[in-house]
């Protein structure tokens, strides 16, 4: 993708929505973006739909893309004559878990027979990166004529937010996600890594589920927050910038969004983005306990103060079912399993994968930074 030209404003559409009338909301987005002609060109094309399938979480938690959006998009594309495939590399590893997560999230049925386990066919992709030379990527996503991104509006304990750019982390198959965390453990480095992965195959179109979003300790252990919207754009970076605005977050402070923009994938400044449709006001999302409103982590990032404000992962043994997912998915082997899981702090890189992927929310973040929790950045 090329940089936005001088004077060009990127459109982001917003429509009121609920999960019962999603077909109408999606059609409103297409009308606002004048995408009728584009839809007609999809006849006979291979179109891949990539939702957010994080793991085995209850639908009401809001951790995964709602199946109502998936089915609405599938119907729209099938009516246009497209050859549709729905799939994702979910957060938890293992080929068998891919379909199990899709069924649990309701996406398998919502795909209307188009779901595919994309972890079984892969391709090694070379990277121009300071972190990794290559990654294994799902072949179906790379080979699609059109790739449509279906992210969820959520906060994220490691990256502040997860939206359109971060959802493309799901391009990576197998152990590649853990390798990426291990290769770029620092926040700014991981943001650059996410932008580089996004660059492998930027989506052609993005539709975001923001009907029931998530705030707090996302992407899985936060609290549902009603926004009542769907967002869409041909540019994922611009859409993330608008999402940040709704949340009350400055997009330039989100590492992966800023980095993707700096690489030429889209604008994040308000002057370069045209919003069409129904924009809600600043909703002041509650942020993860790892982020303070005054960005104190940038000021006190080392030494005594770092130890003072650093939040800690704490296991609730009453919630823990000893499933072993945290141990299996730890990218550095810091998670050990005795009677209950425990963390080897010397190996821990604070990627928060254990907290993110725990299906029972047994890992929580505690500490002074949590008590200094803010509502905007």
Q: How does this model look, in words?
A:
The chain is an alpha/beta fold and 377 residues long. The protein folds into 2 domains: 10-277, Rossmann fold, CATH 3.40.50.11440; 296-371, Alpha-Beta Plaits. Helix content is 32%, strand content 21%. It has 16 helices and 15 strands. It has helices at 22-32, 36-40, 67-79, 95-104, 107-110, 139-143, 164-167, 176-183, 187-200, 236-247, 255-262, 296-299, 303-309, 325-329, 353-357, 368-371; strands at residues 10-16, 46-51, 83-86, 122-126, 134-138, 146-150, 152-156, 160-162, 205-215, 223-233, 273-277, 312-315, 335-337, 341-343, 363-366. The longest helix has 14 residues, at 187-200. It is globular, with a radius of gyration of 20 Å. The relative contact order is 0.15.
Q: Brief description of this entry?
A:
This protein has 377 residues and is of the alpha/beta class. The chain has helices spanning 22-32, 36-40, 67-79, 95-104, 107-110, 139-143, 164-167, 176-183, 187-200, 236-247, 255-262, 296-299, 303-309, 325-329, 353-357, 368-371; strands at 10-16, 46-51, 83-86, 122-126, 134-138, 146-150, 152-156, 160-162, 205-215, 223-233, 273-277, 312-315, 335-337, 341-343, 363-366.
């Amino acid at each position: 993708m090329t940089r936005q030209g001088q004077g060009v404003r990127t459109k982001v559409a917003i429509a009121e929505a609920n999960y019962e009338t999603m077909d109408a909301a999606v059609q409103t987005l297409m009308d606002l973006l004048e995408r009728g002609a584009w839809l007609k060109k999809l006849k006979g094309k291979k179109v891949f739909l990539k939702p957010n399938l994080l793991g085995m979480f209850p639908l009401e938690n809001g951790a995964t893309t709602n199946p109502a959006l998936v089915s609405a998009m599938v119907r729209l594309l099938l009516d246009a004559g497209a050859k549709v495939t729905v799939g994702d590399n979910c957060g938890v590893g293992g080929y068998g878990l891919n379909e199990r997560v899709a069924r649990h999230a309701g996406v398998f049925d919502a795909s209307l027979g188009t779901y595919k386990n994309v972890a079984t066919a892969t391709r090694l992709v070379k990277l121009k990166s300071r972190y990794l030379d290559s990654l294994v990527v799902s072949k179906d996503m790379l080979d699609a004529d059109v790739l449509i991104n279906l992210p969820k509006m959520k906060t994220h304990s490691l990256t502040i937010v997860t939206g359109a750019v971060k959802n493309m982390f799901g391009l990576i198959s197998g152990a590649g996600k853990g390798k990426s965390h291990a290769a770029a453990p620092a926040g700014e480095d991981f943001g650059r890594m996410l932008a580089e992965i996004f660059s492998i195959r930027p989506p052609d179109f993005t539709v975001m589920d923001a009907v029931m979003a998530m705030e707090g300790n996302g992407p899985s252990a936060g609290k549902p927050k009603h926004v009542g919207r769907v967002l869409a754009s041909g540019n994922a970076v611009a859409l993330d910038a608008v999402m940040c605005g709704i949340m009350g977050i400055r997009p330039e402070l989100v590492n992966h969004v800023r980095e993707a923009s700096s690489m030429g994938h889209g604008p994040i400044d308000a002057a370069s983005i045209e919003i069409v449709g129904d924009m809600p006001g600043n909703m002041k999302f509650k942020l993860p306990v790892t982020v303070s409103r005054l960005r104190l982590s940038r000021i006190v990032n080392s030494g005594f103060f770092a130890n003072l404000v650093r939040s800690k992962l704490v296991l609730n043994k009453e919630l823990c079912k000893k499933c072993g997912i945290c141990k299996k998915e730890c990218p550095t082997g810091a998670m050990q399993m005795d009677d209950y899981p425990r963390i080897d702090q010397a190996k821990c890189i604070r990627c928060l994968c254990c907290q993110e992927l725990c299906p029972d929310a047994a890992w929580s973040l505690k500490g002074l930074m949590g008590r200094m929790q803010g509502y905007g950045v």
